[in-house]
UniProtKB/TrEMBL annotation:
Entry annotated with the keyword Transcription regulation: yes
Coiled-coil intervals, chain numbering: none
Alphabetical list of PROSITE patterns matching this protein: HTH_LYSR
SUPFAM superfamilies registered for this protein in UniProt: Periplasmic binding protein-like II, Winged helix' DNA-binding domain
Protein name (Swiss-Prot/TrEMBL): LysR family transcriptional regulator
One Pfam family here: HTH_1
Family: Belongs to the LysR transcriptional regulatory family.
Record-linked InterPro entries: HTH-type_LysR_regulators, LysR_HTH_N, LysR_subst-bd, WH-like_DNA-bd_sf, WH_DNA-bd_sf
TM helices/strands, residue ranges: none
């Protein structure tokens, strides 16, 4: 019995078909069928029912599947332990997040890790905050970057890496362009331009407006902070955005401080409490936390 046979067996079971399993494994379909036949001869029983339109596990196949998965997991674990002892990291790290301000230098952080651990693959997944946190808790994601608003759920650790003032920005022809600041109460009834619901900036905006006794009137939403300024620069409303995002449309914008109270936008890197099991992911988190600021 070979590990390759077990790998093929698990793939066919999970994909419910030999063709899909072959595509997943990047091998020819006849090769998968041959290896499964060989495995069935060795165990003395058929593992799949091939009589229908889809391939299904037999009762014996159902009973064998957990042991096949456990054997493959054990081999992966053995390889990881050996890699740790030899100092060679392999594997894949999945980082979820949103667009990051230039002050964080994420490209520099990523390139520095790649230079030290070239055998580790890194996947960057752009997602919304709720999905990101869920991905951390379920293990689909190893690490994340998101705007901070309300409290994070238990089991998620955070390191604040950005803390900057939120400002209001309008076109130079806007009636507010004659002033230098605006109170939170002064935002009532104005068409605002903001990040979507659930983001850290939007949560802060909604909380301070609620404290002032009103709900903000958000006329336009955009998922990228710099786009908020561009929309305000076209005269579409009052953008609420981080100071660092003003530069993208600075020539078209008049910026006002927000007072009574002031608002701040924070971003943090987040990871599952206790860290991921993968040595590669643990090393990535340690590297990122050293490279990025701690505020």
């Amino acid at each position: 019995m070979e590990l390759r046979q077990l790998e093929y067996f698990v793939a066919v079971a999970e994909e419910a078909g030999f063709t899909r399993a072959a595509a997943r494994l990047h091998v020819a379909q006849p090769g998968v069928s041959a290896q499964i036949r060989q495995l069935e001869r060795e165990v003395g029983e058929e593992l799949f029912d091939r009589s229908g339109r889809t391939v299904r596990l037999t009762a014996v196949g159902e009973a064998v599947l957990p042991y096949a998965r456990a054997a493959l997991a054990a081999v992966d674990g053995m390889r990881l332990v050996v890699d740790e002892f030899t100092g060679l990291l392999r594997g894949r790290v999945v980082m979820g997040g949103v667009s990051a301000p230039s002050v964080l230098d994420l490209p520099g952080m990523l390139s520095g890790f790649h230079e030290r651990h070239p055998a580790v693959e890194i996947s960057l997944v752009e997602t919304d905050p709720e999905t990101l946190v869920d991905g951390l808790q379920s293990g689909r994601l190893d690490f994340g970057l998101l705007g901070l608003g309300g409290a994070l759920p238990p089991g998620v650790e955070v390191q604040v890496v950005v803390d900057q003032a939120l400002v209001a920005a309008v076109h130079h022809d806007h009636e507010l362009a004659a002033g230098r600041s605006i109170t939170v109460a002064g935002l009532k009834g104005l068409p605002l331009i903001s990040l979507p619901v659930g983001t850290g900036l939007r949560t802060v905006l909604e909380e301070v407006c609620a404290q002032a006794g009103f709900a903000p009137h958000v006329a336009f939403e955009a998922s990228e902070p710099y786009v908020l300024g561009q929309l305000a620069g076209r005269g579409l409303g009052v953008a609420i955005l981080p100071e660092s995002a003003v530069a993208a449309a600075a020539a078209e914008l008049h910026v006002l401080d927000i007072t009574e109270p002031s608002m701040r936008g924070r971003m943090g890197v987040v990871w599952r409490e206790g860290g991921p099991k993968s040595p590669a992911a643990r090393a990535f988190i340690e590297h990122a936390r050293r490279h990025l600021p701690s505020l």
